Amino acid sequence: MIVPELLPDTIPLWLDKIEITDTVVELRMTSQQAGLVCPDCGQVATRTHSRYHRTLADLPWGPRQVRLVVWVRRLFCDRPRCPRRTFVESLQGLAARHARRTQLLAERQRQLGLANGGEAGARMSQRLSMPTSADTLLRQIRRTPEADSPAAPLRVIGVDDWAFRHGQRYGTLLIDHERRRPVELLPDREPKTLIDWLRQHPGIEIITRDRAQVYIDALTEGAPQAQQIADRFHLLQNLREALERFWDRHPAELRRVRIRRTLATASETAIAQNPLETAPKLKKRPLKGNSQVLQQRAGRRAQRQARFDEVHALARQGHSHRQIARQLKLARPTVKRWLATDQLPRSRGHPETSKAEPWADYLRSRWQSGCHSPRQLWYELRAQGYTGSEPGVWRWLLKLRESQVEGGPILDVRPRLPPTVQTYSLSARQAAWVLVRAPDKLKPEEQTWLQEIRGTLALTSTAYSLAQQFVTMVTARQQAELDPWLQAAESSGVRELRNFALSLRGDYSAVAAALASPYSNGPTEGHVNRLKLVKRTMYGRAKFDLLRLRVLHPA
Description:
- This protein has helices spanning 103-116, 118-127, 134-142, 191-199, 213-222, 232-248, 251-264, 291-316, 321-328, 332-339, 360-368, 374-383, 390-405, 428-436, 444-454, 458-475, 482-490, 495-506, 508-514, 522-537, 544-552, and strands spanning 13-20, 24-31, 48-61, 64-76, 86-88, 156-165, 169-176, 181-186, 206-209, 227-230.
- By secondary structure, it is an alpha/beta fold.
- The protein has four domains: 13-142, no CATH class; 156-231 and 520-552, Nucleotidyltransferase, domain 5, CATH 3.30.420.10; 235-248 and 425-506, no CATH class; 276-405, no CATH class.
- Strands 1, 2, 3, 4 and 5 form a five-stranded mixed sheet that branches. Strands 8-7-6-9-10 form a five-stranded mixed sheet, with helices on both faces.
- Helix 6 packs antiparallel against helix 16 and helix 12 (374-383) packs across helix 13.
- The longest helix has 26 residues, at 291-316.
- The protein is elongated.
């Protein structure tokens, strides 16, 4: 019985027997090929040396695995000068040489590995009745042929970086905008690597990118004929970063906004007269914020201030942000943020306004009366409506003790608030977002913040007006408004917006193209997100070659 409907018709196979069990379907077959030739000399062989069977796994039939047992011949080569004395007939189109699975099954498992990786793919293959190991799947992935070159040359591409490990090592992803698929994954973001790749594709006309200087230089040298387009999302992000630096330069104003907002919502409810009646009685336990802890905190503050001063000193000597970061072992965003302000910004630790602040007078009086137990005071405040944690009370008392040790006032700089007042926190980033977002998309609380912010500095209204104009210009793609906006920002008096405008002038052609072209770097960002997912499913085991194959050959 010949079975061309079940197997490739390139090889005539005679079905001898079928054995079916609960888990396996075994097909015993014999090859019926004629006119077999020696692979070395091409001589037609007529004499049979021997026979043996090859066992091949095939695609499953429902829940049952399929096993092919194919009898093949070993033949003599009768040509005297041929170095090969015997050879085995091949199963071309059915299975590769020495393979233990059919080409159909191998291709299905390769696709499974590309989609899920090694370990996850092995678990899935077990459920699909074509079991294999994770190592076998990885070998199948590595045998993936290189992608065929597109019929038409690349014309519009996107470029973006991706992280092997954030802050340490990066690669480059390139996508084809017209076909919406990745075309190359580079192992680094060095200019030379990208330049070499661009010179191999001279037909590129349009390139979308973010505003990283390393890509601007590489694209200008590697593809001078191409029109570069800055990403609109990154333009808005750069605007938000400029406004964040503006608020980093005015931390005192933000603090006044927080205090005014807190006082505006203060309640006239008085402090309970006898809170101790509902609080459990505890033994006195001294506050663990001793002088050693206070000295450590003071030492950390002094060290941070010294590094802040050193950053400014190196900048005055002409060092770049990257050089300062490497020399002082700081992150470049930290260096950039510190250089944008004249005084050290507060650390991003606990919020400046504590939930225990409304009970400041009560805590001071209890402290002076001899109750130094944070837990006892926490129980007492909780009976009065305090919703914070015990560590929050501990931190407030620690600052109180610190002010006493240093001989300063006992936190008199903080406002005295009723116990039921809601305290607010507003960071420089939050303030920047309030200025950037459209007014109709602001929540009621954010609209209140906007009103408070615009009343702080004379420049705040100017910054807000310019920010809203820029957002409208980018989202509506109003290219004609670019030059007037740049002139207004440069003469606005807001240092951060002036510097931002100057950076846009340095990348003027790409920014102008972003306001006129329908292309953006959004699809590239989407493929970067997919790359992150693929990278995380590999659990750090696979190397770059496997990652590249899985990204360039989506299943």
